[in-house]
Design goal:
Blueprint lengths: L10 E5 L3 H12 L3 E5 L13 E3 L6 H10 L2 E4 L6 H10 L7 H6 L2 H10 L7 E4 L4 E5 L6 E5 L2 H16 L3 E5 L9 E4 L2 H9 L11 E5 L5 E9 L5 E3 L3 E6 L2 E7 L5 H17 L4 E9 L5 E7 L9 H4 L4 H9 L13 E7 L3 H7 L7 E5 L10 E8 L3 H11 L1 H5 L2
Parallel strand pairs: 1-2, 1-4, 2-3
Antiparallel strand pairs: 5-10, 6-7, 8-9, 8-10, 11-12, 11-13, 11-15, 13-14, 14-17, 15-16, 17-19, 18-19
Helix pairs in contact: 1-10, 2-3
The chain binds adenosine-5'-diphosphate and magnesium ion (MG).
Adenosine-5'-diphosphate binds next to strand 16.
Length: 409
């Protein structure tokens, strides 16, 4: 692909109108870009700050054409956007992120296989696919024969074998469509095996493949957001230490409380992936850190990431500005951490108590709200970045001045 310089004054099209698009647009507008978003909801987070909004389903080809005709460059803000639509947009417009990275990160099997082929550290895994046909050796002296098998029985057998070869505990995940822990089953014993194997015949999972991987006994969950520009420059942001509650990111602590050497290693892994995958834009890599220094790659997201929101108040360049710089072929910004920081997500249930406390909150509490209308339990409504002299101080502020957050998880 030939890369273009996209200069301020140009229009950036965003597929998806959530908070990530909104924060991209806020950063890009500060640099003089215009934005058009495509999202089915009329008053979505991004449309509130974009110059123009196409209200239609992500799958609508006509809408996609409209987006292409209005934009000089197109980006996406979530990875469950139809890869075919993006592929089509690549023909109509300029999509420097491309559709391939999207396809890879939409499918855990593909993602794992690629990481494996790069020789990068991942949890040992087995693939449980739904292929209804199998090559069987009908006669050792003659040929293999294609026979129909019961895919469910076959999948159960693969899972059973994985338990033997990998050993429990394991975690089984749908290859596609999972997020925030949805489509996952932990297998610690025989009963869990039965629960997990029943999933194969449930209509909800018809046509879905699975992956089963070794459960990693990690000390910390960490992530790195890395950017690569179309000219090939790469910059990794500092490592975030992430805490999840109910499988939703609750908190990111930066700098991560792991040795400096491990932080460097995590950033090297992230940069290596960005380079090998020819990424353009930002890519987030979730990893597990073990006490003995081992790092495993968990999963990739081809976009700005919740665990990179701390960069908005704590880094010289935010992940959103960096993404815009990367896709527009501008020099990447410096990723230096200017202050220790703890990011905490504000969910639906937090909004009212947060508003009540806001006028009295200490000045170290920076906040970002996404303009979402419906207050729904566990829905991401905004986040705070608590900047302090060290992360312990930031954590103390959260514990003492914002105790309601933990109490309402
Ligand atoms: P999602 O798309 O839902 O974020 P993940 O693969 O990141 O899916 O899994 C969600 C969470 O489950 C992770 O953040 C981690 O806490 C836990 N998890 C996932 N895979 C493993 C594993 N192999 N070992 C230990 N914990 C895991
Ligand atoms: Mg994850």
């Amino acid at each position: 692909m030939s890369y273009r310089n996209i200069l301020p004054g140009s229009t950036i099209g965003i597929l998806g109108g959530g908070q990530l698009g909104r924060m991209m647009a806020l950063a890009g507008k500060a640099m003089g870009y215009r934005f058009v978003t495509l999202d089915p909801s009329e008053n979505c987070s991004c449309s509130q700050v974009a110059d123009d909004h196409i209200i239609t389903e992500y799958k609508d080809a006509k809408g996609a054409n409209q987006l292409a005709s209005k934009s000089q460059v197109i980006t996406y803000e979530f990875e469950n956007v139809d890869a075919e639509i993006v592929e089509n947009l690549e023909k109509l417009s300029y999509v420097p992120q491309g559709s391939l990275l999207l396809k890879i990160t939409q499918n855990r099997i593909m993602e794992k296989r690629i990481m494996q082929s790069f020789g990068l550290p991942i949890a040992p895994f087995e693939i449980i696919n739904r292929d209804p046909f199998e090559m069987v050796n009908v006669d050792p002296t003659s040929h293999m024969k294609l026979v129909a098998t019961s895919s469910v029985t076959r999948m159960e057998a693969i899972l059973m074998k994985a338990i033997d070869t990998l050993g429990m505990p394991l975690i089984m995940k749908t290859a596609t469509g999972g997020y925030d822990g949805k489509g996952q089953w932990i297998i610690r014993n025989e009963r869990d095996y039965f629960t997990a194997s029943q999933v194969f015949s449930q209509p909800e999972y018809a046509n879905i493949d699975f992956i089963v991987e070794k459960f990693i006994d990690f000390e910390r969950e960490i992530s790195v957001v890395v950017a690569r520009s179309s000219r090939g420059d790469i910059e990794a942001f500092p490592v975030a230490e992430n805490k999840h509650v109910n499988n939703i990111l609750h908190m990111s602590i930066v700098p991560a409380r792991i040795p400096t050497s491990a932080q460097e290693k995590a950033k090297e892994i992230a940069s290596d992936i960005a380079e090998q995958l020819d990424v353009v834009g930002v890519l987030a890599i979730e990893m597990f850190y073990q006490a003995d220094g081992n790092i495993y790659i968990n999963e990739l997201a081809p976009r700005p990431h919740n665990s990179g929101h701390y960069t908005m108040d704590a880094c010289e360049t935010s992940q959103f500005e960096q993404h815009i710089r990367a896709i527009c072929n501008l020099p990447l910004g410096n990723t230096t951490l200017l202050t220790p920081v703890v990011m905490v997500n504000l969910l639906g249930q937090h909004i009212q108590p947060f508003m009540e406390l806001l006028p009295e909150l200490p000045k170290q509490v920076k906040f970002h709200l996404y303009g979402k209308q419906g207050i729904v339990h566990n829905r991401k409504m905004g986040h705070i970045n608590v900047v302090a002299e060290d992360v312990e101080q930031a954590l103390t502020i959260i514990k003492t001045k914002l105790a309601f957050i933990e109490n309402l998880l």
